[in-house]
Amino acid sequence: MADASSGNNNAAGSTSNAEVQIQIPAGPAKAEGSAAPSQKSGTKNWRWWLMVSVDAFFLVAGQTSATLLGRYYYHQGGSSKWVSAFVQTAGFPILYLALFCFPSKSPSSGAGRGDAPVAKIGVIYVVLGLIIAADDMMYASGLKYLPVSTYSLVCASQLAFNVVFSYVLNSQKLTGLIMNSVVLLTLSDALLGVNHEETEDVNGFSRGKYLMGFLLTLGASGTYSLILSLMQLTFENVIKKHTYSAVLNMQIYTALVATVATVFGLFASGEWRSLRGEMDAFESGQFSYFMTLVWTAVSWQVASVGVVGLVFEVSSLFSNVISTVALPVIPLFAVLIFHDKMDGIKIVSMLLALWGFVSYLMQHFIDDRKARKAAASGDS
């Protein structure tokens, strides 16, 4: 999930046996649009947009289905927050299929000279994995105490957090449009935070539980953005080997650590004792209970494949932007499936979130156009 700006300049057309490389510039101010494909080849440009579209579909579809299945788990009688956190990373073995498609080749052209020590990388994986486990727990708790529509809109704040962390840790360039996006997303969340119409009875939870769910989801969004920036920092300053398999390894091993941590939390909290009763009491049956967890885990990994693809083709910040596209999708499904209320405040909040997303996307297209003009003038 590390930032992979400008990854398409040389990688997309490579036909050698060496592994596809993600080019990350060393400059302090990286514009999002620098990842756009070269205009010299119309076929290459078409293929790049196709891959971005497919990855975006995986991310939006996986995130939407995983969120709805997670809420269905609670709606049908599930109550374990540790189980809900566990399934967010437990499907990581599926990523080995993608890893087989992009295997690590023997070092060539000096590719192995900058390899980081295994012990150092291992420590980074463990630390990031533990942070991911804590983040999953906060997301699981927020989803338990909030309606899906509110939960998904609060998650929009992750883009604003990502911009801040990218600026502080990764020297991300900030512009008026990006700051406008941050302000709009913050106002969107603030409207939801002061909306008390639905706090009196959210699946039997009190107003205090609603507020706790709101704060935990907000904290989880910030933590997720911090994770993305830390991963980018690790790739640029430690791993220094920006390949597709390196990105997949980062996800696989941090997910492994997070999964082990959530299993430990499940047993340490004593929630494992109630799992049998929870399965028996699941309203739609034991088989439905099992399949809900399985498909939730699969959905999260589908989303992660989309994230990895967008990281490879564009950047981690852009993948975070695409995840906000699911915001108008999830609440609509939530209204149809769980009969969540879609009141005026939520509609205004959703419009502000979409406005913030469009504002950021406009900055991406502006940077993209500047990068294309610079490339054209350089070629001439």
Description:
This protein is 70% helix and 0% strand. With 380 residues, it is an all-alpha fold. It has one domain (40-105, 113-163, 194-343).
Low-confidence stretches: 1-36, 106-113, 198-202
Strand percentage, roughly? under 5%
How many separate domains?
Answer: 1
Please state the average pLDDT score. Answer: 75
Fraction in helix? over 70%
Please count the helical segments: 15
* Alpha-carbon Rg, integer: 21 Å
The string of secondary-structure elements, in order, is HHHHHHHHHHHHHHH
Shape: globular
| Gap from first CA to last CA | 35 Å
Number of E strands: 0
Instruction: Characterize the main sheet.
Output: none
Structural class: mainly alpha
Keyword list:
single chain, 380 residues, mainly alpha, 15 helices, 70% helix, disordered N terminus, Probable purine permease, membrane, transmembrane helix, purine nucleobase transmembrane transporter activity, transmembrane transporter activity
Layout of SSEs?
Blueprint: H1 8-11, H2 42-75, H3 81-86, H4 95-101, H5 118-145, H6 148-154, H7 157-170, H8 176-193, H9 207-239, H10 244-269, H11 275-281, H12 286-313, H13 316-323, H14 329-338, H15 344-379
Q: What is this entry, summarized?
A:
By secondary structure, this protein is mostly helical. It has helices spanning 8-11, 42-75, 81-86, 95-101, 118-145, 148-154, 157-170, 176-193, 207-239, 244-269, 275-281, 286-313, 316-323, 329-338, 344-379.
